Amino acid sequence: MELARFFLDERGQKEFEKKFSDSSRFSVYNQAWYLQAHKPVVEQSKAVGHSVRATYMYSGMADVAALTGDAGYINAIDRIWENVVSKKIYITGGIGSRHEGEAFGDDYELPNVTAYNETCAAIGNVFWNHRLFLLHSDARYIDVLERTLYNGLISGISLSGDRFFYPNPLESDGKYKFNQGEITRKPWFDCACCPVNMARFLPSFSGYVYAYQDEILYINLFAQSSGTIKMGKHLVNVTQQTQYPWDGSVKIAIDPERSAEFSVYVRSPGWACNEPVPSDLYSYLNQNKEEPILKVNSKTQALNMDKGFARIHRRWEKGDEIELNFPMPVRRVVAHENVKDNLGKVALQRGPLVYCLEEVDNEGQVLNRHIPDDMSFKVEFFPDLLGGITVITSEEKKEIGGIVAIPYYAWSHREIGEMAVWLPRK
Predict the structure, then answer these.
(1) Residues 320 and 405 in one domain
(2) Is there a single domain that holds both residue 146 and residue 26?
(3) 396 is in which domain, residue-wise?
């Protein structure tokens, strides 16, 4: 820890010296901001430079903050996070908008066609937000983690597990070879960070589902699973039954080794509470009046909220069960007016999943389509399509302007063609 803190504290202490002249094509990579060395870390307030290195550094800062309680570190890492979630994150959870320098752009610089959104940056974003949750015990960091995980992270790997995106754009004309010379996923890259980062990250998924502290068990993510958690003197078996993210129904069996009193904190996702991200960067066009429903042993409970978690404190017995139901209507998302690329546009989301339109499903046309505010939708699960997905279709027929949308992560598995997440409302 002391060595980590030394490396962090060295940043910004000396005037940065370029190794190359300004005329060199490498000059961007030798700027202090590119290396997050433009200021001492405790004075930094914006996410800048190479987005992967930045999230790794911010993860280290969060660890030092947690282990030392240093207020300077805590305040700095909170400021940088606020900058990202309010001005520099894509609706898919992707970060790092610029190809040049694989870097963060300016505030609200979130282009769709040229979005970089490196797969490694999405993984780094999960690392960082998980550490901030462990530091602050706040569900909003898991909200960001989940958005990234289900959208801009797993889009980086094919359903077959052997082809990869380096960048993850939110729009494609089917011609621009954005993926290091290819229009679709590739099996390998000269710089092979993304495939191997996926190979180490995906097996670690189970470590993000739960957390515990003292006499509190946190249920962060929802996935069909079972596990055993040691909480102090208690061994607690936890089993989830769910079809999440396709369905908002979750059953969680809390089965302590013996009767024990403790709290279970169950995350109520921001998307289920009319908040796409914990800022005003994105918002839902229409508010959903249906609230999540929580039951314990079939009895409805009031949502006793604490930092985004529904708190349930009781003496738990074998066979106790928590039931959750998160309404999952199709939601229209709009971006902050300062995001110039998304003015007058809308994106579709259902549950934690962001959707896109692909040419193959839409009569060979995507970029000339629009999603009017009065368009109504229906959803249907197709078990044999793209590994099993829920598809959003409009009530209107396609030939008169209707649409078909699939989860963003599953795009570019069939024909090469146009794709878009954001489409005009008119």
Answers:
(1) no
(2) yes
(3) 330-424
8 Å CB contact between 306 and 294: no
- Rounded to two decimals, what is the model's pTM? 0.96
Return the residue matching tokens 């300016």.
Answer: 106
Q: Is 305 helix (H, G, I), strand (E, B) or coil?
A: strand
Stretch 197-218: mean pLDDT: 95
| Tokens read off for 316 | 């738990």
Q: Are residues 317 and 340 both part of a single domain?
A: no
What 3-state class would DSSP assign to 12?
coil
In a shared domain, residues 241 and 311: yes
pLDDT tens-digit readout, 213-249: 989 999 999 999 999 998 888 899 999 999 999 999 9
Dist CA 107 CA 336 (whole Å): 11
CA dihedral 408, 409, 415, 417 (to 10 degrees): 40
174 lies in the same domain as 319: no
Q: Compute the distance between CA of residue 262 and CA of residue 93 in angstroms, rounded to an integer.
A: 33
Residue 39 is given by DSSP the state S
| Residues ≥6 apart with Cβ < 8 Å to 182 | none
Residue 190 is assigned to a structural domain of this protein = yes
One domain, residues 382 and 364: yes
The answer to whether residue 316 scores a pLDDT higher than 70 is: yes
Distances (CA, A) of 85 to 129, 132, 272: 11, 13, 18
**Span 255-291, pLDDT tens digits:** 999 999 999 999 999 999 999 999 999 999 988 889 9
End-to-end CA distance of the chain: 54
- Using CA atoms, how far apart are residues 156 and 411, in angstroms rounded to an integer? 10
H or E element: which one contains 323?
A: strand 320-325
DSSP 208-220: GTEEEETTEEEE-
Whether 127 and 237 share a structural domain = no
Residue 250 belongs to a domain: yes
